[in-house]
Design brief:
single chain, about 150 residues, alpha+beta
Length: about 150
């Protein structure tokens, strides 16, 4: 029964250390708990199972941990957990609006302070210059800066 506890401690320690390295680097809390669990499992194997079994456990765990960590870094298994897509688009870049200061439109969503509005030339993301504007209110273009449209309530 003791060997099951030792095996579970070693497995739990190894999983926590790999999780620290691969999934949540920088927290060190999981790595420390994993190391403590592994050391406790090795200590219990020395104390309860004898010197020879304890040494076998120590060397075996060190080998298995080294191989597991090496293949965790080397293999492409962890690629499916990584975010590989990037967003290269910007707001209102794909549309060219023929708006000018003073044009009027209607807020589609609440502008708190940003939201969507509809103009004659189409929908666009707009920013409120003043207070929040509720959906459905009439708005007027107050300023245009590099594809950013600033509006105010009419």
């Amino acid at each position: 029964m003791v060997w099951i506890a030792i095996l579970l401690l070693l497995l739990f320690g190894l999983l926590l250390m790999i999780a620290e390295i691969i999934f949540i680097p920088g927290t060190t809390l999981f790595g420390i708990f994993g190391f403590i669990a592994a050391v406790l499992g090795i200590f219990l194997s020395f104390r309860n199972l004898g010197y020879q079994t304890g040494m076998f456990t120590l060397v075996g765990f060190a080998f298995i941990a080294s191989v597991a960590i090496y293949f965790s870094f080397k293999s492409e298994v962890w690629r499916r957990f990584a975010l590989t897509q990037t967003i290269s688009s910007r707001v209102n870049d794909d549309k060219r609006f023929l708006l000018s200061v003073g044009d009027q439109g209607k807020a589609i969503s609440a502008l708190r302070p940003s939201g969507k509005a509809e103009f004659e030339s189409g929908e666009a993301e707009v920013h409120s210059l003043g207070p929040f504007i509720d959906a459905g209110c009439l708005i007027r273009v107050a300023r245009l800066d590099d594809n950013r449209i600033f509006v105010e309530m009419v």
